[in-house]
Specification:
The complex is a heterodimer of chains A (228) and B (295). Chain A has 228 residues and is an alpha/beta fold. In chain A, 34% of the residues lie in helices and 25% in strands. Chain B has two domains: 188 residues, no CATH class; 93 residues, 2-Layer Sandwich (Alpha-Beta Plaits), CATH 3.30.70. Classes of the chains: A alpha/beta (228), B alpha+beta (295).
């Protein structure tokens, strides 16, 4: 589904964020990208989303070359990917319901579809009954679940999460991971960049370890690794 | 983009206008003030131009003829001259008659100058299309056979031409400066409202919104604000202008100043101001947005 060929990204200031990455992520997989800060995890997720272009190498998403997308195709790509952020990125002046429906409005879905799918997504993340609350009235864990609801409401092929538990306490983090695992069981590919080693070790999922921009380890049922 | 998006954008426009009510009012007021000043300058310029043309149209070249000049031949030559609006032949008898009329009750003083004793020459009165062309025309006509003397109020015409050139240049300069200042102010105001919503724009891009989708509510909002401001400006300007006309009418100055009242001139001016308001609002939003759309 996602395929990296010899991908390198050098930032204009000369920092090599990722170097020579070869990686294949299949449909329906659950993948952790791990490594210390600055290892290139975030860059890798940004490259999939084409928020950034690689300096060299090729990236394919469902057999399409991500580097050669026109404006329309780029939008189509982004519509197949749901993104979850470390800092949630909810709109403070919109209610929970509006924040989630926003994802559908933006891609031009009808109000009928919105009325049908938003409650469904909110139920899936366990936030039924909080539709009219504003983000500031929710706990961090609840806010991040709104973020997940917003990502899954458009039924994407892939969920990309960059440090989704970075601002959450351990219990809430664990709940969130279970939620993402449930989403994955329904067939959605999930890619999570994280350095929450305890969670990674407990879940026994595929682990792709990066260090200094290089892929150093790729294990099907891996752990965070030693000395992390 | 389908109908769903269109509805969304329209709803979004009004929700945002409602939420950012005061910023919208401030932008609209800015447009109103600018357009009122701009409109005032334009109205003054239009009226000054009109006034100049009125004066210009009264400028005539008096061509005095030798005794026994070939009148049909001269008429032919004047017909062939470029820049002449019209010309009339004034016989010496007519000239005397006009002189008498201008003397009014004291016309008896001119008794005894009739017939053979008439000292006045035959003449042509030539009207030029433009005051600026008068000196050149006069010069040309002076070489026609049978022309004795030419009078056209030389210094008077020169000064008029000079004055009208200055009025036009100052008006043009003021209009350009004001328009540029207005656009700058509006871009600043709209950018303020955008900074408040920068996160929203960023998130929209992450969710896969097209530039078109992100932009239209903002641009529609700008257009709406511009239109509101322009409508207010046109109302204020139009009201004031017509009140002023009514006042002038009362004191009989209207016949001297002859302000512009015809619809053919005023309608495009006011419509132009409306259009400019809409353009400033829309363009202001568009320009301010460019930097936020690069995600």
């Amino acid at each position: 589904m996602i395929h990296f060929f010899n991908v390198s990204k050098v930032y204009p200031n000369g920092t090599a964020a990722v170097s020579d990455i070869n990686l294949k992520i299949n449909r329906g997989e659950f993948v952790f990208l791990v490594g210390p800060s600055g290892a290139g995890k975030s860059t890798l997720t940004r490259l999939i989303f084409r928020e950034q272009l690689p300096t060299s190498g090729q990236i394919f998403f469902r057999e399409r070359n991500v580097l050669r997308l026109g404006q329309r195709e780029l939008l189509a790509l982004r519509r197949q990917i749901g993104v979850v952020f470390q800092d949630f990125r909810l709109l403070p002046r919109k209610t929970v319901f509006e924040n989630v429906s926003f994802a559908l409005e933006v891609i031009g879905r009808s109000r009928r579809v919105i009325r049908e799918q938003v409650p469904h997504a909110l139920a899936e993340v366990g936030l039924s009954g909080k539709e009219d609350a504003f983000p500031a009235e929710l706990s961090g864990g609840e806010q991040q679940r709104v973020g997940v609801a917003r990502a899954i409401v458009k039924k994407p092929q892939v969920i990309l999460a960059d440090e989704p538990t970075g601002n959450l306490d351990p219990d809430t983090s664990w709940e969130l991971m279970e939620l993402l695992e449930r989403v994955n069981r329904d067939g959605t590919t999930v890619v999570i960049a994280t350095h929450a080693w305890d969670i990674v070790n407990r879940m026994r999922k595929r682990v792709v370890a990066l260090d200094n921009g290089r892929l150093i380890r790729d294990e099907a049922q891996g752990s965070y690794g030693h000395g992390a | 983009m389908g109908l769903n998006s269109l509805w969304y954008c329209l709803r979004q426009t009004f929700v945002s206008l409602h939420r950012n009510c005061w910023l919208g009012v401030a932008s609209a007021a800015m447009i109103t003030v600018t357009l009122v000043i701009l409109g005032t300058v334009l109205l003054i310029a239009v009226n000054a131009g009109h006034f100049m043309r009125n004066i210009e149209s009264t400028v005539e070249i008096n061509v005095f003829l030798d005794d026994g000049a070939d009148v049909p031949d001269l008429r032919q030559r004047l017909n062939g001259l470029r820049g002449v609006e019209n010309h009339t032949f004034i016989s010496r008898e007519q000239a005397l008659q006009e002189l008498k009329e201008s003397f009014g009750e004291k016309s008896d003083l001119l008794a005894g100058f009739e017939g053979e004793n008439n000292p006045l020459p035959d003449s042509f009165r030539v009207k030029a299309l433009e005051a600026e062309a008068v000196p050149a025309l006069a010069h040309q006509i002076s070489f026609f056979p049978g022309v004795n003397k030419i009078r056209y109020g030389e210094e008077y015409v020169d000064r008029l031409v000079e004055a009208s050139r200055w009025v036009n240049m100052i008006a043009l300069g003021a209009v350009i400066l004001l328009a540029a200042g207005a656009v700058f102010l509006i871009v600043t105001t709209i950018r303020l409202s955008l900074v408040a919503r920068e996160d929203e724009v960023g998130i929209m891009k992450y969710l896969g919104a097209s530039n078109w989708f992100v932009r239209s509510p903002f641009v529609l909002e700008g257009i709406f604000v511009g239109l509101t401001g322009a409508l207010a400006a046109v109302t204020v300007l139009g009201g004031t202008y017509y009140c002023l006309l009514a006042e002038l009418q009362k004191v009989d100055l209207i016949f001297f100043l002859r302000p512009v009242t015809d619809r053919e001139t005023l309608a495009p001016l006011f419509l132009g101001l409306l259009g400019l308001g809409v353009l400033m609002g829309g363009a202001g939003s568009w320009i301010s947005l460019r930097k936020f759309l690069r995600v």
